[in-house]
Amino acid sequence: MGGKPGADVKSGSRKNSDNPALWALAHAERAALADDLATLTPEQWQHPTLCGDWNVEQVVAHLTAAASLNQRRWLRSMVAARFRADVHNQRQLELHRGGTPAQTLDRFRAIVDSTTAPSSHTAAYLGEVVVHAQDIRQPLGLPYTPSVEALTPVAEFFASRDFAVPSRTMARDLQLRANDGPFITGYGLLVTGPTLALVMSIAGRSAYLNELSGPGAATLRTRVLQGGSG
Fold first, then answer.
1. CA atoms of 40 and 29, how far apart (whole Å)
2. Which residues contact 73 (CB under 8 A, 6 or more apart)?
3. Contact 143, 152 (CB under 8 A)
4. What is the pLDDT of residue 10?
5. How far apart are alpha carbons 181 and 211 in whole angstroms?
6. Helices (DSSP H) in the chain: which residue ranges?
């Protein structure tokens, strides 16, 4: 993730125009997060999140970076980081963080409607904003749940492959079934719960495990707790 924040985020972008419905959902989720962020106090901007050691402002800067890189810029940044994803992410985060939380929010608002991405995996980039937004909201107690329409394609993508998180590995040999929407996948011991809890759990977020039930829930819990929540 890289490039300059703000006005040029769509320069040379890969539009992924074959997934306009998913992009529309991603834009809506970004806009909803921006509205929530606008209500935060300075102290809340420094609050820990579910995303490793990053605080709220750092996660927001990471989301801005994620929506600012086309394939060429992403590859250039990864080569510079010697393909160390953590180094790449930290460098791009610092590039896109403002001097104040207000500036960081302005930069995030500038990419709300961006379709820039390093690949055509649009569901993954919808998942990026869904998961990281909840990484912020859950510790702050902000009462927002993404729509089932947004969550279902993310759940399907996460269960089908390991992309940015080892979600397919987490879901291996389990049947996942949402109790609030159409999502169902896999074979094996059943894990059931809200679509959001399923998405966040297979993304490695242990804070959502208590919302799940079924004979496979203990297996998933063990995997998540062993795998961490980075």
1. 17
2. 1, 2, 3, 12, 118
3. no
4. 31
5. 15
6. 20-37, 42-45, 56-66, 71-80, 85-96, 101-110, 122-140, 148-160, 167-171, 195-202, 217-227
Note every long-range contact of 75-84, with CB atoms under 8 Å and residues 24 or more positions apart, other chains counting. 75/118, 76/2, 77/1, 77/2
Residue whose token pair is 């006005």: 7
CB 163 within 8 A of CB 213: no
Q: What is the largest CA-CA distance in the chain?
A: 50
Among residues 10, 25, 16, 199, which one has the least CA distance to residue 122? 16
Element (H, E) at 175: strand 174-178
pLDDT at residue 71, rounded to an integer: 74
98: its two tokens: 């403002």
Task: Output the pLDDT for position 68.
Answer: 92
By DSSP bridging, strand 184-185 and strand 174-178 are antiparallel
Contacts for 178-184: CB closer than 8 Å, 24+ residues apart: 178/148, 178/152, 180/148, 181/148, 181/151, 181/152, 182/148, 182/152, 183/151, 183/152, 183/155, 183/156
> Mean pLDDT per segment of 10 residues, for the chain of length 230 residues?
29 48 97 98 98 95 91 75 75 87 97 93 96 98 96 97 94 97 97 98 97 98 79
**Contact call for residues 74 and 121 (beta carbons, < 8 A):** no
Q: Report the alpha-carbon distance of residue 144 to residue 32 in Å, rounded.
A: 9
Q: Please enumerate in sequence order all residues whose Cβ is within 8 A of that of 100, keeping only pairs 6 or more positions apart, or say none.
A: none
